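Q: I have 375 residues here and want to know how they pack in 3D. Can you give me a structure?
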Amino acid sequence: MNTTGKVIRCRAAIHWKPGAPLAIEEIEVAPPKAKEVRIKIVATGLCGTEMKMLANPNSHNNYPIILGHEGAGIVESVGQGVSTVKTGDKVITLFLPQCGECASCLNPGGNFCVQFKQSKTGLMSDGTSRFTCKGKPVYHFGNTSTFSEYTVIKEISVTKIDAVAPLEKVCLISCGFSTGYGAAITTAKVTPGSSCAVFGLGGVGLSVIMGCKAAGAARIIGVDINKDKFEKAKEVGATDCINPQDFEKPIQEVLFDMTGAGVEFCFEAIGNPATVAAALASCHESHGVCVIVGLLAAGTQLNISGWLFFSGRSLKGSVFGGWKSRENVSKLVSDYMAKKFNLDPLITHTLNLDKINEAVELMKTGKCIHCVLFL
């Protein structure tokens, strides 16, 4: 049945209020308007960002809302003026848009598109939602809202990918993998033969390790208080794994002892201000680079000694691994198809959408690296 131009009824996981579990509901998804794309989501990852939002009732004020931002699917229909994708195309959703016109998009070294800020409203560009449930409008999330069988996204937040790419794998390139892998390759620019340390061995941290290995790092030290993650970290490229709780001295001193002078590249993939400070202090004093990959809560203040910078250390932020989203994601998918990296180790669980709350509980245990949901 041709659904172009018609309202589609489908299932979605709705977050109705702070502290509540996600609820599977029937929703209505309106047709795309100008420069918008309606997508049938095939697979979506449950990312750490959603976990933080579900754990922190004050993370946003837009309720009810459809979360999810790590998705892959097939274009169902397009709005007026859409030229880069068409019905039937396989696509990846992009929480970070690429408008191609703002200062960040035009700068060769920038990727934080100004249009990202639109997502904070939870509405489309015209100030309305394309979702309704039980007669009420439902907010969008992260320019994407992939916890829905169908979603409507702006064209600048969608990129076409290889027609034979497995969506249940490459959906990770929509956020978690690209964020970590790019932090090493694009943001830090890890050099061959260098030493690296990665704080936090979740899906993003493991992706950082994969990036460090691909860049030719000689030593990659994984740091986490959960020893159950060490085996997986070594599988993807870590040469050493340590638990800070096993030592009486601060972790930065441990890393200095292990390397003789501190690591050349350090990555914080947790989003904890204390570990950011420790990661920076773990860097080589003259040329060490520390990259914040984890999502720090809005308003978080860092308590860092200014003396750490005197000798030449640098601290950098990174969003989406520094990639220009529409431009680079399709290339990363092509690299995956060419077997330049393997996503399988990052996916430890797969469930259907109606089991999403079970997936949330799995993530809380620390035994789940990444759960992919099938829609």
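Q: Anything worth noting?
A: The domain at 180-319 is CATH 3.40.50.720 (Rossmann fold). The first strand starts at residue 8 and ends at 14.
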